[in-house]
Recover the amino acids of this structure.
């Protein structure tokens, strides 16, 4: 029942993700125009390289590790703080490289700067913890509110192509606020960090190993927009992104099951319940 409930919660949010682009894409296309959309698409694609490099495989790894120790509050507290501080360090390094990149940008400097809020937002993303303890109600509830607020802000404040900086700020700003909103809930979930016992190094190798397959999956979804923007112009990149978004939103309904199953199967595996793992996987298929 817990898995079914989490799947329904996650699927309902994925359904919202399907509905929102149907509402916002026609509006944004008409109001911002092809040039502004192209600039947003191209600059966002560049920023996603830094987000991807800064996050490495921590989201999947952290989700799995927390799932392994759901019933041990002390152990999962230590794992949470170690992984979180490791992520802060790597994101800081990625942001430093971005600042060097930004120093050489003469065009769209302001847009790049606003897009970089997404890098900071990634540092405070702890949704992997709540997924690991299979508390999807918390993350889905947050995502619902953030998505609805962003739509309201877009319709209210975006009226012309000159509002592109405001549009970027709405998207990245609501993401940052949404990620920060989860932190207060940790007070009842975990203990305070024990600074002397924190060890970050042993988490680095497994996150990098999980990062490699993520690159193969995600890099082409970013690279296509970048390549189109370089060889055919930012406007063409915008056209591609808008149409591609409408096609791919339906895929999220299917993949939402995998998000729910990862912590559940990981927890069963950590307890040695191999037969239950096999049965769960069969049912998911």
């Amino acid at each position: 029942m817990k898995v079914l409930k989490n799947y329904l919660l996650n699927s309902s949010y994925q359904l919202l993700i399907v509905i929102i682009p149907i509402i916002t894409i026609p509006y944004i296309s008409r109001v911002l125009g092809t040039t502004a959309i192209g600039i947003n698409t191209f600059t966002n694609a560049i920023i996603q390289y830094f987000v991807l490099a800064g996050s490495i495989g921590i989201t999947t790894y952290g989700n799995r590790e927390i799932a392994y120790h759901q019933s041990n509050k002390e152990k999962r507290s230590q794992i949470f703080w170690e992984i979180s501080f490791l992520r802060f360090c790597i994101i800081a390094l990625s942001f430093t490289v971005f600042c060097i990149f930004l120093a050489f940008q003469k065009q769209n400097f302001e847009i790049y700067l606003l897009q970089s809020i997404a890098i900071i937002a990634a540092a405070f993303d702890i949704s992997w913890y709540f997924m690991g303890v299979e508390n999807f109600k918390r993350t889905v509830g947050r995502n619902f509110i953030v998505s609805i607020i962003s739509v309201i802000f877009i319709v209210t404040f975006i009226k012309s192509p000159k509002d592109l900086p405001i549009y970027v700020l709405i998207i990245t700003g609501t993401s940052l606020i949404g990620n920060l909103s989860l932190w207060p809930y940790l007070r009842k979930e975990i203990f305070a960090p024990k600074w002397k016992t924190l060890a970050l190094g042993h988490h680095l190798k497994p996150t990098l190993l999980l990062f490699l397959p993520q690159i193969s999956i995600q890099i082409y979804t970013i690279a296509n927009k970048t390549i189109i923007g370089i060889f055919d112009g930012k406007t063409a990149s915008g056209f591609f992104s808008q149409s591609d978004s409408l096609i791919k939103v339906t895929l999220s309904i299917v993949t939402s099951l995998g998000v729910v199953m990862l912590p559940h199967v990981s927890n069963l595996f950590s307890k040695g319940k191999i037969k239950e793992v096999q049965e769960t996987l069969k049912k998911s298929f």
